[in-house]
Specification:
The complex is a heterodimer of chains A (about 325) and B (about 260). Chain A is an alpha/beta fold. Chain A has nine helices and 17 strands. In chain A, helix 4 crosses helix 5 and helix 6 packs parallel to helix 9. Chain A is elongated and about 60 Å long. Chain B has a nine-stranded mixed sheet with strand order 9-8-7-10-6-1-4-5-11, sandwiched between helices. In chain B, strands 2-3 form a two-stranded antiparallel sheet. In chain B, strand 8 and strand 9 form a beta hairpin. The longest helix of chain B is centred in the N-terminal third of the chain and has 16 residues. The chains are: A alpha/beta (about 325), B alpha/beta (about 260). At the A-B interface, helix 5, strand 7, strand 8, strand 9 and strand 12 of A face helix 3, helix 4, strand 7, strand 8 and strand 9 of B. Strand 12 of chain A pairs antiparallel with strand 9 of chain B. The complex binds flavin-adenine dinucleotide (2 copies). One flavin-adenine dinucleotide sits at the interface of chains B and A. Chain A: Heterodimer of an alpha and a beta subunit. Chain A: Keywords: Electron transport, FAD, Flavoprotein, Transport. Chain A: The electron transfer flavoprotein serves as a specific electron acceptor for other dehydrogenases. It transfers the electrons to the main respiratory chain via ETF-ubiquinone oxidoreductase (ETF dehydrogenase).
Chain lengths: ~325, ~260
């Protein structure tokens, strides 16, 4: 059976969920071979094997942390040449897309970004994309070279499928461009203890209607009652009420959870671009005409300062 | 020595319009008004600020697109860019990201450059990969997705806010930079700027000017193929209640019925 390269997104050996989803999708088109780079690369093997990786190619070098993107492209290219896969799958993070694009160009292949589904077709994998702020669904193929496809988080359910997951050392020679962009400092993000926004099953968001940094505690309390991640509209982020890393939308994160709850958010096209594919959508807004209500499965027209605390209390009561 | 900045700007269908596909599954550009991709305004803005700090700098804005794409160039010129290049050719219709990066890279080389500045992503294709592709083709450092950028003594520095960490980056010129919408509000063209833009030079190049064969670009030359495009069915109308004191509890009831609680 053909092999499919899967680029592993991990933090010091802890594999992030989108990679496990990729392994599930990869099995539809071949046998997954994972490529894990950088600090803790070999520690990823157990999780990857459990989700279907037949082999795990690893390599660690200071270059991965010290320089931007290109060292990882060099390594993925080395893996590509060693394996001759039928396709290359990469998680659709900002960095993942850049790595995938440069690889595609080097190996003379077309690239599809932000796929939301993947299936085997007569002439190679067929990717589904959700485009124009999720108002259209397209089916796209790579028509030249080996398909390089980046896949959005939450595009498939994670399935366990134990495989060998044999760890093999990857040989990598860095090219002249690898050290072009130096990372001179790095400030890791502090964990809030809440789920990762793009990976969360439930996202609770606040917009301009939340009206202040302190008031975001109401949104956080609701999120915590549901074990959810917290999101924000750009208006709330631009006002400085919540960090940019929590922004949902075209220029923020794109989320596709089981449940999305928008509080005090009007539903501008750029916000919708990042949440319209959520399975169930709920909104609380005091304006009955707000465009967000066109999207909802359930909406409450009301003041979020009344509705949200009551909802949180009711959830906590029902749980307790 | 003059700092030569090339800003890549894309002409896109207005996101608030009714965007859709034409029969050949490329973007229908006739039915919806086009404009300068809003995210490229941030690239123009940063170019203007970098030029202000430099002793001597020249900003060229570059677009690859149909006749109407000149509108995007005019907007960038009215914001304060010095000159423009429009790459236009019938054979470009349907070009994918790989092909677009080829045309941009050839045009940038022909124009001459020390620094290329792009937007973080277009507002239609939203791939966010063209700047990395252009850097790969030019063989120069990519310093992308910056929310803060500066240039001094031939070195570009910036801040990239990623998922796991915020990073400070540094590279020698020449380099390709892309900036996010966190990099700073873009200025509005002034009346004077709009008048001045009318007199600024706009060069028109076609594929032969760039030594690119028609087969390398366009729908035929694309390395990806769109097989189908379907409008997403409208969501079925949901239940909307007015809060009369029990809105939170009613919503909890809905969430429980859907097994979220
Ligand atoms: C809905 C949709 C989906 C698509 N999916 C794919 C796909 O999966 N794979 C693929 O190869 N192509 C795809 N394309 C085609 C692709 O979007 C365009 O060919 C192309 O112009 C570049 O990609 P982008 O718009 O995503 O640019 P991005 O990479 O998002 O653009 C980043 C920056 O590059 C610069 N730039 C991009 N295009 C131009 C231009 N024409 N002129 C000047 N500067 C420019 C701008 O500074 C811009 O801010 C898609 C197009 C559409 C409309
Ligand atoms: C290029 C570009 C990219 C963009 N990217 C993004 C993006 O990634 N994400 C994003 O979100 N936006 C983005 N935007 C901005 C977007 O266009 C909107 O401006 C933004 O989404 C508005 O945020 P909002 O809904 O919180 O605020 P508003 O539109 O001001 O809406 C606030 C809502 O809160 C309601 N409200 C007020 N008080 C209360 C109350 N007490 N109780 C209940 N409801 C109340 C109001 O009725 C209103 O509907 C982008 C814009 C551009 C041009």
């Amino acid at each position: 059976m053909a092999e499919v390269l899967v680029y592993v997104d991990h933090v010091d050996g802890a594999v992030r969920k989108p990679t496990l989803e990729l392994l599930t999708l990869a099995r539809r088109i071949g046998e997954p071979v994972a490529v894990a780079l950088g600090n803790g690369a070999a520690d990823t093997a157990a999780a990857l094997a459990e989700h279907g990786a037949t082999r795990v190619l690893t390599h660690d070098a200071a270059e991965y942390a010290d320089y931007l993107v290109v060292p990882k492209v060099d390594a993925l290219q080395a893996a590509f040449e060693a394996v001759s896969p039928a396709a290359v799958l990469v998680p659709s993070s900002a960095e993942g897309k850049e790595i995938a694009a440069r690889l595609a160009l080097r190996i003379g292949s077309g690239i599809i970004t932000d796929a939301v589904d993947l299936e085997a077709g007569d002439s190679g994998p067929v990717a589904t994309q959700s485009v124009f702020a999720a108002s259209f669904t397209t089916k796209t193929r790579v028509s030249k070279g080996t398909p390089v496809i980046t896949v959005k988080p939450n595009s498939a359910a994670v399935e366990a499928a134990p495989a060998a997951g044999a760890v093999e050392a990857l040989e990598v020679t860095f090219g002249a461009l690898a050290t072009g962009t130096k990372v001179t400092a790095r400030t890791p993000r502090e964990s809030t203890g809440r789920p990762e926004l793009t990976e969360a099953a439930i996202v609770v968001s606040g917009g301009r209607g939340v009206n202040g940094t302190e008031n975001f505690a109401i949104i956080e309390a609701l999120a915590d009652s549901l074990g959810a991640a917290v999101g924000a509209s750009r208006a709330a982020v631009d006002a400085g009420w919540y960090p940019h890393t929590n922004q949902v939308g075209q220029t923020g994160k794109s989320v596709s959870p089981q449940l999305y709850i928008a509080n005090g958010i009007s539903g501008a096209i750029q916000h919708r671009a990042g949440m319209q594919t959520s399975k169930t959508i709920v909104a609380v807004n005091k304006d009955a005409e707000a465009p967000i209500f066109d999207l909802v499965d359930y909406g409450v027209v009301g003041d979020l300062f009344d509705v949200v605390p009551q909802l949180t209390e009711e959830i906590n009561t029902r749980k307790g | 020595m003059s700092l030569r900045i090339v800003v890549t700007v894309k002409y896109v269908p207005d996101a608030t319009g009714d965007r859709h596909f034409a029969d050949d599954l490329t973007v229908d550009r006739d039915d919806v008004d086009g404009l300068l991709s809003e995210l490229d305004e941030y690239a123009v803005e940063q170019a203007l600020q970098i030029a202000d700090e430099a002793d001597d700098a020249e900003i060229t804005v570059l677009t690859v697109g149909p006749e109407d794409a000149k509108d995007a160039l005019r907007k960038a010129l009215s914001m304060g860019a010095d000159k423009a290049i429009h790459v236009e050719d019938d054979d470009l219709h349907g070009t994918d990201a790989i092909g677009t990066s080829l045309v941009l890279a050839k045009a940038i080389e022909k124009a001459g450059y020390d620094l290329v500045i792009s937007g973080m992503a277009s507002t239609d294709g939203t791939g966010g990969i063209v700047p990395a592709l252009v850097a790969e083709r030019l063989g120069v450092p990519q310093v992308t997705l910056l929310s803060e950028v500066s240039v001094e003594d031939g070195v570009v520095k910036g801040r990239r806010d990623g998922d796991a960490a915020s990073e400070r980056l540094e590279a020698s010129l020449p380099a390709v930079v892309s900036v996010t919408d966190q990099s700073g509000e873009a200025r509005y063209p002034s009346f004077k700027g709009i008048m001045a833009a009318k007199k600024k030079p706009v060069a028109s190049w076609d594929l032969s000017d760039l030594d690119i064969e028609a087969e390398e670009v366009g729908l035929e030359g694309a390395w990806t193929a769109v097989d189908s495009a379907a409008e997403r069915p409208a969501r079925t109308a949901g239940t909307i209640v007015k809060d009369e004191g029990e809105g939170g509890k009613q919503l909890a009831g809905f969430l429980a019925s859907q097994k979220f609680i």
